[in-house]
Amino acid sequence: MRNVLVTGATGFLGQEVSLRLMRMGYRVVGLTREIKDNLIAVPLQGDLLRDDPFVGPELEYDAVIHCAGHHPGETDEVETLHVEGTRRIVAETKRRGITRFIYISAIGAGFHAPTRFQRSKWVAEQVVVNSGLEYTILRPHLMFGHGSRTFQRLEEAANRPWAVLPESKPLIQPIYVGDVAEIALRSLWLDRTVGQIYDLGGPQSLKLEDVVRHMARDIHLFRILTLRIPRRYAYYVLEKIGRVGPILSGEEWEFLQHEVIRQDSRWLIDYGILPHSLAIYYSPLA
């Protein structure tokens, strides 16, 4: 049986990755700080932010899939987990003699990105790129599916006859969490993906208000009033007053300002995947 180490195995994406790996016949070992009821993998107990040795089975692993990370705006310590945590798991990967490493980054990761979340993801990418490992880096846009925190709040907004939204011109391309998990899984055996960085977006380009209306139609609210906060005030309002609607934090809104101008179609060819649209969860826009 082949073994894969998954970080963030109890998280939104990590659970999906773990389930798909097990269905494919892999033994999944999940790195976790404490044993939780929702951990479906064999536990490897350890903390990415501490130098204590990991406690768990000593196995020969085929690969590491590094899903652990914070949500945009979730904490002020985002750099610690993304950068120092990635350094720790890269060092552990090399210590165990593992060569294949798949890292889940984020769309818009870059040195001059607008959010700390994206900037810290970019620094972590550099750690991976310069590690000497056979890496693949995946940069998904906003992921939807069961368990998505952002989409749960969008659903709450869609359940009301009105929603307060920050004014936003950029289009977002929500991608199904199952598609991202499948891409991570296929990276294990597709040699052409080694050394590549892929921007992952779904098949639809939508404004945030269209996403909310999409959901509203699914619950038969055919009319929903959207009140827009002017863009120049949006970050201040969302960050200082809190989530409005409730929908987004200021950091989440900034993250969604990254518009995918040029669709990266290489992953469609390299992985042979047709991404799912929002219609698999919500009725399509009329």
Automatic annotation (TrEMBL):
Any one GO molecular function term: protein-containing complex binding
Could you name the domain of life of the organism this protein comes from?
Bacteria
Quote the InterPro entries the UniProt record gives: ComplexI_NDUFA9_subunit, Epimerase_deHydtase, NAD(P)-bd_dom_sf
Positions of the NAD-dependent epimerase/dehydratase domain: 4-200
Fetch the PANTHER family from UniProt. NADH DEHYDROGENASE [UBIQUINONE] 1 ALPHA SUBCOMPLEX SUBUNIT 9, MITOCHONDRIAL (PTHR12126:SF11), NADH-UBIQUINONE OXIDOREDUCTASE 39 KDA SUBUNIT-RELATED (PTHR12126)
Q: Give the protein's recorded name.
A: NAD-dependent epimerase
Q: Identify the species of origin.
A: Sulfobacillus acidophilus
